[in-house]
Design brief:
alpha/beta, Rossmann fold, 2 domains, 6-stranded parallel sheet, 14% strand, globular
Length: 555
């Protein structure tokens, strides 16, 4: 295909074969692709010629995305690209990862992650226009668009440890992309990153430039909720795309918009500059985490006064200015995003000399930590102020229901506090593999030496976990926990038998459970009429998975 004719050198070949950029002429320098996906307009002149329209059509064709490469086959990259493949059957989507076992799992009947509806989407597209591979370099070379969906954990050492995001995987991806790229390519950050991370990627690209290479950097953060990720991807509240406010940057934005417009209405696709897009992701997660910490702080007040936090949440949630979402009191929020993003926001504010703002958002994390310690303290106090050598059943280890993700799960923290007191834990979760539970609890900051092998047992079903237990602790709101035969469980437990409901999943069963003989403790409400007169033995120390491991005496 030959390029369209141009006026006397007003245009010249651009940084990739077959594209054009404006020459030095004033009119030509002002030409850019318009919002209609290829229309070229002369800004400030009111002139639109056939030549310019032809040039716009040429650019529109050449910016069409036919092949997508996603680096990172985790909780973001896997589901996102599976849905893109299903919604855009003409686009070839390849998800790559250095972890060969993970890629093998994506190519098998047993996917590496659990997400309702994901398996059906993958099986419908895999081998047609959806592929999973460890051949990263070839996938990058062939792609028109590269998603960066790698992990950005919180730093555990060095400057900013415990708060700043570790961008080593992002940097490694940027270097590998520029090494294996030629021509024109759009690079899009999908991972949750600190503000101006795109600038770092662009600096790597600029420092390693080569002839005929043009890499455009976009920000396209994900707003998925694990457990409803497929639903969120197919019917999103919004799709946010940030790019440079330059003609080339806007052309890249429109190209990515065209992919999402296969199934997302145009009015739900929001375009911003890169910095606004990156900050919007951090701010959104910070606001959601803030609401959870707010209602959890009220739950402590409810327990002290006799109010019911569920009734309070319903009352304030009916105010349309507030709304009823994310007002569910619990043992605390978890997952890969909330704590990491709030800490990242705190670090950003401190780096920008905004200590008051940093302190405000730090309180969201502090309340979440307090809620976990407070719940663990209630367990210990309820069991006559000691849990040493007592069997405690932990029901649920994922950070929320309908997912197998355990990152920053409150179950890890509750288990750590109980292990520190010498409790024997019998843990059951319907979707979290045994190996994952052992890895999480063997983290140097959680336990040491052979503490897990001595104190932790992974059960195959909830009845096995509860057999002979002093207490049942519900840490994840799996629906199946509402349907258990609690009379059967009570018969095999030591008496008095306790239930500590950290997720309010048994609210409708309190009367029945008390009739059976259970002593019930739940978040944000006084249930048991007979409370044992034991005062807290002391403050449980703060703990974070981001903290460096501390040596402690063996139990």
């Amino acid at each position: 295909m030959k390029p369209p004719p141009s006026r006397a050198g007003a245009f010249k070949y651009g940084p990739r074969p077959g594209t054009f950029v404006a020459g030095r002429g004033d009119l030509a320098e002002r030409l850019r692709c318009g919002p209609e996906g290829g229309a070229v307009r002369a800004v400030g002149t009111g002139v639109r010629t056939g030549v310019e329209a032809a040039l716009g059509a040429w650019n529109a064709v050449m910016f069409e995305i036919k092949k997508i490469c996603c680096i990172g086959a985790g909780y973001v990259g896997g589901p996102t690209c599976s849905v893109i493949a299903q919604m855009c059957p003409e686009i070839r989507v390849t998800v790559v990862d250095v972890n060969e076992s993970r890629i093998n799992a994506w190519n098998s009947p047993t996917l590496p992650i659990y997400e309702p509806g994901l398996k059906e989407v993958v099986e419908a597209c895999r081998g047609k226009n959806l592929f999973f591979s460890t051949n990263i370099d070839d996938a990058i070379k062939e792609a028109d668009l590269v998603f960066i969906s790698v992990n950005t954990p919180t730093k555990t050492f060095g400057m900013g440890k415990g708060r700043a995001a570790d961008l080593k995987y992002i940097e490694a991806c940027a270097r590998r992309i520029v090494q294996n790229s030629h021509g024109y390519k759009i690079v899009t950050e999908k991972s949750t990153v600190p503000v101006r991370a795109a600038e770092s990627i662009r600096q790597i690209f600029d420092a390693n430039t080569k002839p005929n290479l043009n890499l455009q950097v976009l920000s396209n953060p994900e707003f998925l909720a694990e457990g409803t990720a497929i639903k969120d991807l197919k019917n999103p509240d919004r799709v946010l795309i940030g790019g440079d406010e330059t003609p080339e940057g806007q052309r890249a934005v429109q190209a990515l918009c065209a992919v999402y417009q296969h199934w997302v209405p145009k009015e739900r696709i929001l375009t911003t500059n890169t910095w606004s897009s990156e900050l919007s992701k951090l701010a959104a997660n910070a606001f959601l985490a803030q609401r959870i910490s707010s209602i959890n702080s009220i739950s402590a007040l409810c327990e002290a006064t006799g109010a019911d936090v569920e009734e309070v949440a319903t009352a304030i949630g009916m105010d349309q200015r507030i709304g009823n979402k994310f007002l569910k009191a619990s043992v605390g929020f978890g997952g890969s995003c909330f704590q990491k993003d709030v800490l990242n926001l705190v670090y950003l504010c401190e780096a920008l000399n905004l200590p008051e703002v940093a302190h405000y958002w730090q309180q969201v994390i502090d309340i979440n930590d307090y809620q976990r310690r407070r719940f663990a303290s209630r367990i210990i106090d309820g069991l006559f102020n000691t849990v040493t050598d007592k069997k405690i059943a932990i029901l649920g280890f994922a950070f929320k229901k309908d997912t197998g993700d355990t990152r920053e799960s409150s179950s890890i923290y509750i288990s750590k506090y109980l292990m520190d007191e010498g409790a024997h834990l019998h843990i059951y979760d319907p979707k979290v593999p045994r190996e994952q539970i052992v890895v999480d609890l063997s983290h140097p900051g959680v336990s040491e030496d052979d503490q897990v092998s001595q104190l932790v047992t992974i059960s195959k079903d909830p009845y096995e976990a509860c057999d002979g237990a002093h207490a049942v602790v519900i840490c994840t709101e799996w629906d199946m926990f509402k349907e258990l035969d609690y009379e059967r469980i009570h018969k095999k437990m030591l008496k008095p038998a306790f239930i500590f409901d950290g997720r309010r999943v048994l609210d409708g069963l309190h009367q029945e459970l008390q009739t059976i003989g259970f002593q019930i403790e739940t978040i944000g409400k006084k249930v048991s009429s007979k409370r044992f007169p034991y005062a807290p033995s002391g403050e449980i120390p703060k703990f974070s998975l981001q903290d460096p491991p501390n040596k402690k005496p063996r139990v």
